[in-house]
Design a protein that fits this description.
There is one protein chain. With about 270 residues, this protein is α/β, with parallel strands linked by helices. It has 2 domains: about 1-160, Alpha/beta knot (3-Layer(aba) Sandwich); about 175-260, Orthogonal Bundle (Trp Operon Repressor, Chain A), CATH 1.10.1270. Helix content is about 30%, strand content about 20%. The protein is built from 9 helices and 11 strands. Strands 2-1-6-5-7 form a 5-stranded parallel β-sheet, sandwiched between helices. A two-stranded antiparallel sheet has the order 3-4. A two-stranded antiparallel sheet has the order 8-9. The chain is elongated and about 70 Å long. Bound molecules: 1~{H}-indol-6-ylboronic acid. 1~{H}-indol-6-ylboronic acid (JB8) binds next to strand 5. Pfam families: tRNA_m1G_MT. Its main location: cytoplasm.
């Protein structure tokens, strides 16, 4: 898979030489190229921004500079719709989730356009959409960063670890998609079985594989209900067994004809 990242701070992407993503690049599994947007600027000062039309604070990234950069980096790919996707990190985008990462891992060529200041002139996304390029504006969450570079780091790591042939991935990816899909993970422990007076739950030392699996599923569900009720609402009811429903009922959730809904909201605080 090929990923191009365009930024005015290409050095921000240096951590992508480390760890598993770095290894994937060295082995050729991931062809990741980082570009300096200013290479496409026209003037001596390599200007990439201008003041916002209509007024307001801050600066906006110029469409002409972005257009020339993206024409080059998207390359002939603009003539092959479906082969390339333009990803634009922005706090106004759709939230990045695992489904999106899984989909992007199947796209042969992803170009990430990292904005700064108040963002990129809106006509850039509009232009490439009009030329048949899939354009996805993505947010990391409901908070504001200074630019798209951190989102690009997150995206590359989330996608690269899913690529077939990524070192050490098959078993752990299978485990992630196990249990009640769409829940948080269960808590994990290692040796020693007692540490500073805290004991590892006895069931994990029992060797009873089925009981361990059930306990983990209970923990995952309970954690999810307490911390992420939004995820409980999206669970597929058909995937819940009798015990799942009992656990959720205990936490105030009931199965209705429109899926799960909270009947008695919990009073306590999530830990
Ligand atoms: C200017 O919060 B963010 C984010 C913030 C940004 C830009 C892109 C992304 C561009 N500010 O994910």
């Amino acid at each position: 898979m090929r990923i191009d990242v365009v930024s005015i701070f290409p050095e921000y992407l240096a951590p992508l030489e480390l760890s598993l993503v770095g290894k994937a690049r060295r082995t050729g599994l991931l062809d990741l190229r980082v570009h300096d947007l200013r290479d496409w600027a026209h003037d001596r000062h390599r200007t990439v921004d201008d003041s916002p039309l209509g007024g307001g604070a801050g600066m906006v990234m110029r469409p002409d500079v972005w257009g020339e950069a993206l024409d080059d980096v998207l390359g002939g790919a603009q003539a092959h719709p479906g082969e390339v996707e333009l990803v634009v990190p922005t706090p106004s985008g759709l939230p990045l989730d695992q489904r999106t990462a899984e989909r992007l891992a199947t796209v042969p060529h992803v170009v990430v356009a990292c904005g700064r200041y108040e963002g990129i002139d809106a006509r850039v996304a509009e232009h490439y959409r009009g030329r048949g390029v899939a354009v996805t504006e993505l947010s990391l969450g409901d908070y504001v960063l200074n630019g798209g570079e951190v989102a690009a780091l997150v995206l590359v790591e989330a996608v690269a670890r899913l690529l077939p042939g990524m070192v050490g991935n098959p078993a752990s990816l299978v485990e992630e998609s196990h249990g009640a899909a769409g829940t948080l993970e269960y808590p994990v422990y290692t040796r020693p079985p007692e540490w500073r007076g805290h004991e590892v739950p006895e069931v994990l030392l029992s060797g009873h594989h089925a009981r361990i699996e059930r306990w983990r599923r209970d923990q995952a569900l309970e954690r999810t209900a307490r911390r992420r009720p939004d995820l409980i609402e999206r669970l597929a009811v058909e995937d819940l067994d009798r015990r799942d429903r009992d656990i959720l009922a205990e936490l105030g959730w009931e199965v209705g004809d429109e899926g799960l809904r909270v009947v008695s909201p919990p009073g306590g605080v999530a830990d």
